[in-house]
Amino acid sequence: MAGGAPGDLLQAIEAIAAPILEAQGLLLVDLELRQHGRRGLLRFFIDKPGGVGIDDCQRFSEEVGDHLDVANLVPGGYDLEVSSPGLDRELRKEREFRWATGRLVRCWTVSPVEGKSEVLGRLEGVESDSLVLDAAGKRWSIPRALVAKVRLQAEFPR
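Structure (tokenized):
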């Protein structure tokens, strides 16, 4: 998409977005840049305590879009999308795991851990070699090497 490593470009984009996120009281959950036809597709997934709404996404999109256009980091043009992380988002990156700490997740493993290949529980800790879940009062330490997929589990107030 641009000169330099893709990670460098994402870091530059994040550096531009960081003060805007902070000023608007938002958290960056994920950021992705993909080739989409002849243009790039830049996606921000944002959150805040209590959740984000359409107005939050629109306000952030307008401001970050203006700053990114001035910086001209993505040659050839790009489409910008801003949204909430979603109720059942798959967690892949370290930042996403940290963001999801305290939330209900479903974790699938490539081989059983204590006889189970699927655990539903609250993500209590994110360690370098494991994810720690609390499932109905039982503490699970799931080795990262065995994690196949982790997805947020939607929770609805009763």
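The chain has a mean pLDDT of 90. The domain at 90-152 is CATH 2.30.30.100 (SH3 type barrels.).
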